[in-house]
Structures are given as C-alpha cells and as structure tokens.
Design goal:
The protein is an alpha/beta fold. It has three domains: 22-107 and 177-255, Rossmann fold, CATH 3.40.50; 261-347 and 464-517, P-loop containing nucleotide triphosphate hydrolases (Rossmann fold, 3-Layer(aba) Sandwich), CATH 3.40.50.300; 528-845, ABC transporter involved in vitamin B12 uptake, BtuC (Orthogonal Bundle), CATH 1.10.3470. The protein is globular, with a radius of gyration of 31 Å. The chain has a six-stranded mixed sheet with strand order 6-8-9-3-10-11, with helices on both faces. The two termini are 34 Å apart.
C-alpha cells in the first residue's frame, strides 16, 4: 500500500548545508544503573524529511527521543530545535521551540476529557480559551472523521487504545510543529487510520516540516522514510538514505547479523495436531452472538476481521473479561469464563493487547510480574520458594531475550517491547492448556517477533491450543494453522491450507463485511445514564436525596427539627465541616490525604488565642489573621516537603505533621486557656436571618473552586497532576508546583474553619479540631472524591458534609446511641465509594 506519492517518498536525502536542520542531538549520553542506554549519539533531522529511527527493543530509541522532547534528562550532550540550543531541555521548552511528540504510550490524562487533554498540551500561543476548547478540538478531530468518531467531551479513560492514539496523534499534529516525533504510532491504529496518518505526514513534509519515525514495522519504514538511522545497544550504527537500503539490510543492521525467518507456512503441514481440545458452542455476549468453533491440541488459530466485528470481544470473553453466555469445553470439562480468575483456574490464560493498562504491574519487579501466574508451582504451603521462582523466571527471560539490568528492576523502567516480553512470559509460565494472545508481537522488534513466533509454536507443539488475534495478515499467515474471519459479531469465514495467505486473509476480511472501518471511541449514542455516571457532580445528587430522606425521618420523629433554633445550632457546624471537606478535597485531587487538618485547626485556634486576643486594634486583628494564614501555609509547605521532596508516603508524611503540630499546640496551651476577642468572633458568627454568613461564604468558595477546576488552567493542571503525574510531567505540567499549591491551599482553607471553631469555643483549645480529620475524609469520599486523585467535586464535598451533619442530627432525634453516628457514616461511606467505583467501571467498560 502506497500512500505518500513516489516522488515524495523517494526524495533524495541531501547533506547540503542549505537544507535547514530542525532537530539536532549533539553527543547525547545517558546512563541508568547497570545500563548505558545512550552512548554519545549525534543525529541531525532536516526540514522536509521523514527520518526513521530503528533498532531492537532496548536499543535506546525511546530514551533518545525522550531526551529530545525534554522528558528524560541526558547526562551530557545538547539538544537543538529550530536553531535554539540547550543542554537541559524541558518538555515545555521543547514544545515552545516547535517539537511535538507522540509517545509509545499516549501521554494522555485519563480523568481529563479529550478536549482538555488536547488543549493542555498546546504551546501557549496555540492554546485556545477554555470556553472554546470543545469547538476547537472538534475541528481538529474532524480531519480524522473518515476513520475515527471521537467526542471531545469524552473522558480519555473511556477511550479504547486505538482511539487514544488517534487523539494523541491529532493533538501533536495540531501544534503545527517544526518536527514531530512518532514513537510506534501505528501499533494500535486500524489500517484506515494508518493511511490517514501517512497522508497527514505527507502534508507536513510538503509544508516544510520534519518527522522522526520510530517503528518495528520495516515495511512502513521503507514506505515513507527518506533517511534511516539504526541504533544498536545505545549506539548509532549509521544513517542511510532510505532508497539505498532494503528491508533485509535494515533487519541485519538492527540485529547485527544475518536474520531469516525461523518458521514458514510450509513447515506447518508437517505438524501433527491432536484431538479437539477446545470446543465453543452458542457463545454470545456484547457485540458477538452464536459463535461456534473448536481448536485441536497443538493448533494455533487466528482471529481476523475489520476492527469492531466482535473478534476481540470473543477473545476477551473467553478470558473472562467480558460477560458472556454459552458453552466452553476444554479437555472435556466445562470451563467458567465469568471472570479472569475463573478462566485461569479452568486452564485459559489471556495476553492483553493493552499492555500499559492491563498487562504490566508498575512498581513490581520483572520477576514479580512474571511469576504471578505460576505462584502455585513456586510455593509450598503458601510460602514462595525463592530459588525456584528465580530459576523459572530467569529461564523464561532468557528464552524471550528480555533486555534488563536485573530481574529485580521495576518493570516500568523497561522499553515497551521488553515489557511485552515479560507479560508474555507470565502467560506462558501459567502452563495453561489454552492461550489467548491478543496482538502478541505488538511493539516488539523484528528479531523478538521471530522469537515469539518460535516460542508460541513450541508451546503449541507441547500440546496447548493457542488463539492469536492480530491486525497483521502477514503475521496470521506465518503463525496460524487456521484463521477465522469475523463479521458483525459472528464467524463469517474460515481459512486453511492454500487459502491461508496474506492476500487471502485480506480479501476475506474485506469481503466479509462492509460494516465498521472506523474507530468508535464511544457508544454511537451517549445515553442520559452514561452522562450522569461520568459527571463528577452525580454523587452530590445522590447525597442530596439521602439527606432529604433522613430529614423526612427526623421530621416524623420531632417537631423541633424544622425550627430556626435547630438550624441555628447545626448550620455553624455544617459551615465548619464544609471548609474541612473542601480542604481535604484539594489534596485528594492530587492523590493524597491530609491527616493533619484536624490538629492544624487546633493549632490555629491556640495561635488565635494569642494573636486575636481582646482589646487589639483593627490593624492588630488583621495582622493576627495574616499570622494564621502564614502558620497554615507553613504547615502545608512542610507536608509538601515531606511528601514530594523527601518522598514519604503522603499518609505517613501528614501523620508526622499531625503529631508535630499537635505537640506544638499542647505546648502552647496545655489546657484550654486565653480569650479570643468577642467582638471579632461576633463578626465570624454573624447571620442573615438564621443562616450564618460563613455558610454562604463556604457555598460561594465551593462554587468558585468547582468552576475553577474546569475553567482555569490551574484547575485543569491540578486534575492532570492527580490523574497521572508522570504523564503530566511529560507534557510540561510543573507538577511539583501544583502539588505545593494543593498542600498549601488545603491548609489555608482550614483557616476559616478554625475561625468558626474559635467562635464556638471562645478560647484556645488544642484538641478542638481533632474529630474533623476523619469527618473531612468521609465527607470528601461521600462527595465522589477518588483516593487515587484526578476526580472529585468541591460541591460534592460540601454535600458530603451536609449528609454527615444530617446523620449526626437524626441520630440524636431518634434517641439512638452515639455510636450509631459512626456506624451510619462508615456504612454510607463504604456504600458510596463502592457505588461510584462500580458506576465508573461500568461506564469505562461500555
């Protein structure tokens, strides 16, 4: 398939100094513990060329372009973009100079919408106003309308992998960069989207731009590259004119030796297959129905079809990841596929195509990632046998040729291809009778691909059955004994023998259906239920309903509930908890929890008993308020230092602060003492009718913060930091500053809560705020906050506070023991967290 015209594709590579160098890497060097990742590489990329960068997994390609994009800091060397040069590039600097990058794993924030992601990554001079971002993103995505249907208002977490890549590529091209880096851009794209990408690359080249193209698909490299640079073991082997090297030449340069296929279709006829091992009958589910097929022992069959025809859903259903009904028989026994655990217990192992989200376990070592599926084999009486674990994982890594300094390094430090090898090792180590391989060679180099083919064949020869789903007809031809073609959720055709060829598969796929050839990122029709479920304000509506129901119960039990006296008592308590809940919500937005908010309030009340004492002048009272704000800001800065700079877990860090500031408060006031100016407190406790002014202030603050979360650049960056901090760093968000602002902002929001506590106590009391710590966490969680960050609502947190106060009030009116307050609050918090989690999970899966 040729997309770029022949003249453009075969444009001569020139070394004429008149042709402008838009990207230059000068003697770049990078070392990691045990690995010399980049060895003094110098590289020039010129205007008007597609410069391909090829090499094996672990050769240093992604590290090199990460240095060029500022997301990885080189040990030495310099980066030059459009004539601007620096030895310490940052993502923001590189973007402003005209470099855009599409990473191997999309740099998208899952809890932000498509439009917010696209806007956030733009250079300042191209960033639209928040109110215009939906229309702006729609115009950009319209260029992909022939292959992609993506709603800019959809949260990225709801997109399928192929749709995420379309968004990532679209936003990079929208920057109109001088040079764009594409790191494995076609791994998740449908053929139609690849065609569209190549067309847009051609337009960029014709307009004077440049492209750095990284791919293991050498046919694509030969198709579009004017220049080819080869990396091997972190060093630059050489740079060649694309027209002067063959695909086999590139393969030999990449692996450093002559490489041929290890297995051909001709050899398949010599393999003896066993009896039927898997039998699937009347298998139905979402997007597929009445699927019947069987697989023999030792056989590898392939699933093919235009994306969206049900083949992936069938594979995932067999692995227990999609709800299904029907009969699955393996080795003569019925197997339950209601969950991945049940499927694995029945002898079915699944390799996901979404390695980043469903494959690797970040934070665990290579050894731990690989051995998870073989725990029964390496343990005795529930205790892991370390020697046995190290032996079988080392053998698996050697067979897969995993490149890593040690099996003990974090898997997230490896290249994508090596991560894929580790995940495949885990699947094979399960020694299951049926292996489901969804895009098994995705993101791996040509040498590793042949190794994976050989290993799968050896596994099948050992008696297992294997089902491979691949978007590559060439891969299916080389690997499979039979290929099943799907159309509209059913089996449309089966290919074997002479019919099983790359051409035959492609023809069968195209003739089997005229249905979907576009990426359907979301459901064709977004239902009202889905809109409500994805909205962060949805929990507030649930809480309001629960509050009203409890109110009805209280009214039925006591006439006193609906009196101004009762509301005069509970509304000041409500205002206090609302400020606590909003403060907690700020930190929870970045994935933290602040345990120090209660003692901080006590400390501020104690300090207030000194700096806001009676008979001070108005100026003195103002200075006293400033002192309280400064004390709060210092506590927030200490929390940030411990959590971010010292890198203590936020819970532990704020627990340390909790103890320290509580000790300081008791040191200043061992017992309640001192008098806070009553005139000042009368202003704090002033009312409009029976409604305290501070309740109105709290509501106003909640609305302002809620709007700022979605309409201000700071609010979007705050959500981005909590959604995926590493990704936010890569796109230029200064996450350390955002995190500092969150901790300090949390502490400052405690100041009005402390003023309300002063109005209640009138004196310095070190313990007066202690009970609000857990209550603030409960209110924020009830309001929809995620403990992992990125999601939540300040309005929801206030409604959570309303429900907490309502529970406490109703328990008293019903004459129940006080421990019922804790029981009800705990039960509702758990129920709310479970409900929100389940709702969001169903929304994302749909």
């Amino acid at each position: 398939m040729s997309v770029i015209d022949t003249q453009s594709q075969r444009r001569a590579v020139t070394t004429d100094t008149d042709q402008e160098v838009v990207l230059r890497l000068d003697s770049v060097d990078k070392k990691y513990p045990g690995v010399h990742a980049i060895k003094g590489v110098s590289l020039d990329v010129r205007r008007g060329e597609v410069h391909a960068l090829v090499g094996q997994n672990g050769a240093g390609k992604s590290t090199l372009v990460g240095i060029a994009a500022g997301s990885i800091t080189a040990d030495s060397g310099a980066v030059e973009i459009g004539g601007a040069r620096t030895s310490h590039p940052t993502p923001q600097w590189c973007r402003e100079q005209g470099l855009a990058i599409v990473y191997q794993e999309p740099a998208l924030l899952p809890d932000l919408t498509v439009a917010e992601n696209m806007r956030l990554s733009m250079p300042n001079h191209r960033r639209p106003a928040v109110k215009d971002q939906i229309g702006w993103a729609t115009k950009i995505l319209d260029r992909w309308n022939s292959v992609a249907s993506i709603d800019p208002g959809t949260p990225v977490r709801e997109l399928q992998p192929d749709a995420r890549f379309v968004v990532e590529i679209a936003k990079a091209l929208a920057e109109e960069p001088k040079v764009i880096v594409l790191d494995e851009p076609t791994e998740h794209l449908l053929p139609a989207a690849v065609t569209e990408l190549f067309r847009l690359i051609s337009e960029l080249i014709d307009s004077g731009g440049a492209v750095v193209y990284i791919s293991h698909r050498l046919n694509e490299v030969k198709q579009i590259a004017h220049t080819v640079s080869v990396l091997r073991d972190g060093a630059l082997v050489g740079t060649f004119a694309g027209a002067d090297v063959t695909e086999q030449d590139v393969v030999n340069l990449v692996v450093g030796k002559e490489l041929t296929r290890t297995y051909t279709r001709a050899e398949a006829s010599t393999v003896t297959l066993g009896d039927t091992l898997l039998d699937v009958a009347d298998f139905s589910g979402s997007r597929f129905s009445d699927v019947d097929f069987s697989v023999r022992s030792g056989e590898i069959i392939g699933f093919a079809g235009v994306e969206g025809q049900g083949q992936r859903e069938v594979l995932r259903a067999l692995g227990g990841l999609v709800s299904n009904r029907g009969t699955v028989t393996l080795a003569g026994r019925n197997v339950k596929t209601s969950s991945p655990t049940a499927a694995l217990a029945g002898g079915i192992a699944y390799l996901s195509h979404d390695r980043h989200n469903e494959g690797i376990l970040p934070g665990l070592s290579l050894r731990e990632n690989a051995s998870l599926s073989a725990l029964d084999r390496i343990s005795r009486f529930g205790v892991i046998r370390g020697y046995r674990e190290r032996k079988i994982t080392s053998q698996a890594f050697a067979a897969m040729r995993v490149k890593a300094p040690s099996p003990e390094v974090d898997i997230s430090t490896l290249s994508g291809g090596n991560q894929q090898k580790v995940v495949l090792s885990r699947v094979l180590m399960a020694e299951s009778e049926l292996i489901l391989a969804d895009e098994p060679t995705q993101g791996v180099d040509i040498g590793a691909r042949e190794e994976i083919y050989s290993i799968l064949r050896e596994t099948a020869a050992g008696g297992s059955a294997i089902i491979v789903l691949s978007s590559s007809a060439a891969e299916l031809e080389q690997l499979c004994d039979r290929v099943i073609v799907f159309s509209r959720g059913t089996v449309a055709k089966e290919l074997s023998g002479e019919d099983l060829s790359e051409h035959g598969i492609a023809q069968a796929v195209l003739s089997a259906t005229s249905s979907r050839s576009r990426v359907e990122a979301t459901l064709a029709k977004v239902t009202l239920g889905r809109k409500i479920a994805r909205n962060d304000l949805a929990p507030a509506a649930i809480l309001a309903t629960a509050t009203i129901l409890l109110g009805i119960v209280a009214i039925s039990q006591s006439e006193f509930y609906l009196t101004t006296r009762n509301f005069g008592l509970i509304l000041p308590l409500l205002a206090t908890l609302m400020f606590f809940a909003m403060a907690q919500q700020v930190v929870m937005m970045i994935g933290g929890i602040d345990l120090s908010v209660g003692p901080l309030a006590g400390l501020l009340v104690v300090v207030g008993s000194f700096v806001l004492s009676a008979y001070k002048t108005p100026v003195g009272m103002l200075l006293g308020l400033i002192v309280l704000v400064v004390v709060a800001a210092v506590v927030g800065a200490v929390n940030w230092t411990l959590a971010v700079v010292v890198k203590i877990n936020p819970l532990i860090a704020t627990l340390v602060t909790y103890t320290a500031i509580q000790g300081i408060a008791y040191l200043l006031r061992p017992l309640p003492d001192g008098t806070i100016d009553p005139v000042f407190l009368s202003y704090v406790g002033s009312k409009l009718g029976f409604v305290p002014v501070m309740v109105i202030v709290a509501i106003a603050v909640a609305v302002i913060l809620e709007v700022s979360m979605y309409r201000s650049i700071f609010g979007i960056r705050l959500r981005a930091t909590g959604s995926a901090q590493d990704t936010a760093d890569r796109i230029g968000v200064r996450t350390k500053r955002i995190t500092l602002a969150a901790y300090v902002g949390c502490s400052i929001l405690i100041v009005p809560a402390a003023l309300l506590l002063m109005a209640q106590a009138g004196t310095g009391n070190a313990s007066i705020g202690d009970s609000y710590t857990l209550a603030s966490i409960g209110a924020a969680v009830l309001g929809g906050a995620s403990i992992f960050g990125g999601r939540g609502s300040f309005v929801g947190a206030c409604f959570g506070a309303v429900l907490v106060i309502q529970i406490n009030t109703v328990v008293q009116f019903l004459d129940l023991p006080l421990y019922w307050q804790q029981w009800l609050l705990g039960a509702l918090t758990v129920a709310a967290a479970a409900l929100y989690s389940r709702t969001r999970t169903l929304t994302e899966r749909s």
